[in-house]
């Protein structure tokens, strides 16, 4: 029997790509989602891409009774816990809903896992745990801080898993600190479909390119970076998905717990990304320079050496492929998953 992996938040952007990567690697996958930030249409697309009906449960990860029933039915061997709210600005105006969903959900899943003696988890952490970077590239042993409630939930999430491992060595966890996930599956059938106005750069640029929005606002051109605009480590979502396969293999091989950056190690500016997107799409992306966005840092990029050495994983896609795949998804689905 093959190893069964439960993906919480399974219909989401990163989870849907990870679902395909796990199936391709021979794992059985079960998804759980309450569609608070995703569409059931994702499941139809996954069925088309994989040739099989996805095993899926509609449920809230904060619901203890529902999670118990999911574990009873599917008996997963390990969990990848994606389910969370992720909008930084919204977390500042609605902190309690972020603490409840992101931390309540994590604690509930961990309690359910303990009851079913399932003690391997890959956790979606974030480069946001580095707060304002002191030194670049960021290594995993850099200073950590939370600069908004969303970041606090990721920092606390890592702490919860570390404490669980200290209390019971049977727990093996991988906290993956994602940098800036972008791009889409090469088929163009799944991709990022933000609700309302996109908060993040690539989906905003994509919507300008496809004609859904008029102009991009570039948040500041007076940073201490080569062209003055913010620099980030964009990582193709398919590479990120493969990072989860590598982390699960690491845990299932009985290795210890790990906390690892998942990035490329290369930084690109906002204007670099706009130019790359224009080239990939053949569309122009008009923009205005506006004041800096509160809470943004000048530059943030990973040292990805630990993941390479310990997980045997490294990013393979470049910025051109990230933009081309994003554009294929955006142009094939101009209104997202309707
Ligand atoms: P997403 O919103 O597309 O996916 C999250 C999924 O979880 C959604 O389908 C949502 O409906 C579901 N969900 C949320 N709360 C739930 C609940 N209580 N019960 C059941 N399902 C629930 O986001 P994503 O970009 O795919 O992010 C996945 C994970 O990665 C999140 O934990 C996020 O914080 C983390 N992360 C994302 C980024 C990024 O920039 N996208 C960067 C670093 C970390
Ligand atoms: C990238 C660059 C902006 C939008 C966020 C979260 C982080 C992680 C990833 C979850 C910056 C600039 C953006 C726009 C712009 N998520 N920008 N105009 O802020 O690096 O990270 O997503 O864990 O926690 O904070 O990503 O895509 O929002 O911004 O000029 O309309 O693009 O200023 O320099 P960020 P982003």
UniProtKB/TrEMBL annotation:
The entry's keywords: Carbohydrate metabolism, Isomerase, NAD
GO molecular function: UDP-glucose 4-epimerase activity
InterPro entries reported for this sequence: NAD(P)-bd_dom, NAD(P)-bd_dom_sf, UDP_G4E
Protein's pathway: Carbohydrate metabolism; galactose metabolism
Cofactor or coenzyme needed: NAD(+)
SUPFAM superfamilies, sorted: NAD(P)-binding Rossmann-fold domains
Domain of life: Bacteria
Catalytic activity: UDP-alpha-D-glucose = UDP-alpha-D-galactose
Enzyme Commission number: 5.1.3.2
Domain NAD(P)-binding: 6-325
Record's subunit section: Homodimer.
Family, similarity comment: Belongs to the NAD(P)-dependent epimerase/dehydratase family.
Protein name per its UniProtKB record: UDP-glucose 4-epimerase
Organism for this UniProt entry: Roseateles oligotrophus
